[in-house]
Specification:
- α4 packs antiparallel against α11.
- The two termini are about 110 Å apart.
- With about 425 residues, the protein is mainly α.
- The chain is elongated, with a radius of gyration of 60 Å.
- The longest helix is centred in the middle third of the chain and has 175 residues.
- Helices cover about 90% and strands about 0% of the residues.
- It is built from 13 helices and no strands.
């Protein structure tokens, strides 16, 4: 009891400092406790050894409770981190967790809800925390605590919460306050277990002195409470007077509210009349607009029919012109093929004549070789006559062939010009019709 009183009668400043620095010291103290091995001291007595073993057991229990508290605080944040949980936890445990989350979100469908009074409250619409507590959350914490890979993630989240609370100056959450208090309690327990008998005796003397001072302070507090009672009685009297004033003001306010309600009702009736008149005017206007819509639809349908007929006629005309143009082109191709055949015949005849001429020239040359000594003068004259006749024949034949070919070329050019003029006229007519549309 004395040790407990020594722990509780600390000054508030020291308690706040220890709670603030509890998070930083807890990590160092856990590492020191882990490094310590209480079984190595062979010179200690069995009682001291048992005390050390008990101290180690208590520290381990406290460490485990701190870890579970951290996990419980970080549980809402871990629920959102689905990927990290899925990468660490097994498939069976993930299915169990998802089932528990669903039951926690919709407690009406949870099989573990055994309190019928809470069930009735939920039916009535009361979804407070007392009706949402689920025993299967203990199973959830057990599953998550069995995975040591989650501990670094939990530590990071707790550090972030502490940094946010210190940096932004936000009030600490109840869970974080409880965690800091638990860490502070662990440090105090470790200090108490490491304390020697002399130190404990000095602590008892200090507590006795503090108890003596505490009695003095309690007397002073009683005096202050008496004075405070008197002041509160005076304050109650003033408050009664103020309540009477407030009641009179409330009565005046009620009369004013009645007057304003009557005025408001009058305004509402006037506005309803105006709305009825406006709705009638809108209905008349709507009927007129419907009639205009029907007339515009009729005009549109008539115009559409006229335009469709014009389009049909224009397409038929276009098809007729295209078929006529194709027939003319086919006719032109056939005539050109016939002329090409004639030209080929003439060139063949010309080549045959040239061959015959060459053969005759060869024969004449042979005859010239045979009859030169006998008929030199006569052959010269004959040769001249034959060459002149041959040249004349060739010139006349070539002139006829060239004239025929030139006439055909001129005729083809004239036909091409006629076709181009027809195409231009057709394109101009189509452009005019398109502009009219």
């Amino acid at each position: 009891m004395e040790s407990h009183s020594a722990g509780t009668l600390q000054s508030p400043s020291t308690f706040s400092e220890s709670s603030k620095t509890g998070s930083s010291k807890s990590a160092d103290s856990t590492t020191k406790d882990k490094d310590q091995d209480f079984t190595k001291d062979n010179a200690a007595s069995p009682i001291d050894l048992e005390c050390k073993i008990q101290a180690e057991r208590i520290t381990k229990i406290l460490d485990e409770s701190i870890n579970k508290t951290k996990l419980a605080i970080c549980l809402p944040g871990l629920v959102k981190e689905y990927r990290t949980l899925n990468s660490i936890l097994s498939n069976q445990h993930m299915d169990d967790l998802l089932l528990i989350f669903d039951q926690y979100d919709s407690p009406l469908f949870s099989t573990s809800l055994l309190n019928m009074g809470a069930f009735e409250d939920l039916k009535a619409g009361d979804v407070s925390l007392k009706n949402r507590l689920n025993p299967e959350l203990g199973l959830l914490l057990y599953i998550m605590n069995s995975y040591p890979a989650l501990k670094p993630v939990v530590e990071e989240m707790i550090d972030e919460m502490k940094e946010d609370a210190t940096k932004e100056g936000k009030p600490e959450t109840p869970g974080l306050k409880y965690l800091l208090a638990l860490e502070n309690f662990r440090e105090l327990m470790v200090k108490q277990m490491e304390m020697t008998a002399a130190e404990e005796l000095s602590m008892k003397l200090k507590t006795r002195k503090l108890e003596a001072s505490n009695t003095k302070l309690t007397k002073i507090i009683e005096e202050y409470t008496n004075t405070l009672k008197q002041e509160s009685e005076n304050f109650e009297e003033t408050m009664k007077h103020k309540a009477e004033v407030i009641a009179s003001l409330e009565a005046e306010l009620a009369t004013q509210n009645r007057e304003t309600a009557a005025k408001l009702q009058k305004k509402v009736l006037d506005s309803e009349r105006q709305m009825v008149l406006a709705t009638r005017a809108h209905l008349i206007k709507n009927e007129m607009l419907k009639e205009e819509e029907a007339e515009s639809k009729e005009v549109y349908e008539n115009l559409l029919k006229v335009h469709l007929l014009e389009e049909k006629n224009l397409r038929a005309r276009r098809l007729k012109v295209e078929t006529q143009l194709l027939s003319w082109l086919q006719k032109y191709d056939v005539e050109m093929a016939d002329k090409q055949v004639e030209l080929d015949d003439f060139t063949e005849k010309y080549d045959e004549e040239m061959k015959k001429c060459k053969e005759l020239e060869d024969q004449i040359a042979e005859q010239d070789k045979e009859y030169i000594p006998l008929m030199a003068e006569r052959e010269a004259e004959y040769h001249e006559e034959m060459t002149q006749k041959m040249q004349k024949f060739l010139q006349e034949h070539a002139a006829r062939v060239i004239q025929n070919a030139w006439r055909e070329v001129l005729a083809n050019r004239a036909e091409k010009k006629k076709l181009k003029k027809l195409l231009k006229k057709m394109q101009a007519a189509e452009e005019k019709k398109g502009g009219k549309k």
